[in-house]
Amino acid sequence: MRTAFYALALVAGPALAAPADDVSEARLKARVERQVAFGTRHTLSTQDDPKRGIGAARTWAEADFRESCGDAVTIVKPETVITGKRVPQPTRLMDVLAIQRGTERPDEVVIVEGHLDSRRSDPLDATGDSPGANDDASGTALVLESARVLCHRHFAGTIVYAVVSGEEQGLYGGKLLADYARAQHWTVKAVLNNDIVGNSRGSDGLVDHTHVRVFSEGPRGNATPALAEAQRLNGGENDSPSRNLSRYIAGLADPALAVRQIWRADRMGRGGDHLPFEEAGYPAVRFTVAVENYDAQHQDVRKADGHDYGDTIDKMDFAYLAKVTRLNVRALAALAAAPLAPTADTKGAVQTFTTLSWKPVPGAEGYAVWRRRTDAPGWEEKVLTTSGTTVRLDGVRADDWFFGVSAIAADGSASPIASALPGGGF
Ligand SMILES: [Zn+2]
Fold first, then answer.
1. Overall fold of domain 3-337
2. I want to staple 53 with a disulfide (CB 3.0 to 4.6 A). Which of 45, 68, 313, 321 is the partner?
3. 112-149: per-residue pLDDT in tens?
4. What does the domain layout of the chain look like in residue ranges?
5. CA–CA separation, 104 vs 169, rounded Å?
6. Ligand 1 midpoint to CA 35 (Å)
């Protein structure tokens, strides 16, 4: 309950009210059905057939954004040409972004992403049917529905709704988007990657529709040897911005869907489109169902050995997908309303007091200082709030605590807590 306590105390902004309630299970289902109807959305599939393939799917996603949001978003389509192990011929790759510009700090950006492309058992088979209902029509539907319910509201920061491609061939669309963010000089506050978010029954029959997993890296993907050494000596291995983003999201969950934080970058031996962001130094997490159906993933649709293979709609749970979407909407609204988390530093060697200092961030009216014991998983105690950027805590031995700082806007919207430890800065 520690996490819930901290969230209630921390995230009190008005931005959290209402929009999550607008999420429509029926609209999510219709979008998954529409994507499956493209036959295949393989990255190497046809790009000029109006009914089948990745090109038609991309055109549909863009039209969906325009229908929901009109002039409230700007559509941008970064593209590149890729080749690689799973891309034998040079292939045009394109992401579809809907950008909802922030009213006060448009360069501060929160990204929600899902991948449009699908695959079969053979990763190079670009012609056979490949429904990809859960992987990742579910994530794409979530992105489009999040845009629909949020795009006519106003937030201080920018929200980017991203439908990416090339994930199954090697995370190309995520990389393209991370490169685009850098080229635009965006300050990326958070990336919410949604990949396989629409089933509640596993391949062994295990059912769980009351949890979603949120994956985050520990040590940063862009850590230098110097940072790794500083963390080895002073801590911070469990306090990357991605990890604190995970803690923040867990605090936004409601009783219908709890967050199971998974403190590893992704599922064992696997990857996703949040990884290129973490490698570029941006805070990012992956949302995935509590229980995966491995018979559905990366499989041709068929029956064999008593198993029902293939990523088809009948294996999905749209009420569950709606719950995951609501959590994403709450997180997007909270993050877009809040200031950037401040980069903070702890001083306390060989003394009986602790000094914390941080750089001021735009849009912050105040700051909350938090602490936890070094073996505690989540933030335990709000020590104080202040409008300044330095505090001295007498009688507090810094060796025995981890500290963090959250920035708070005038409306009460609070940022994630950034750890005042090596590598903790967002
Ligand atoms: Zn996927």
1. Aminopeptidase (3.40.630)
2. 45
3. 999 999 999 999 999 999 999 999 999 999 999 999 99
4. 3-337, 344-419
5. 38
6. 14
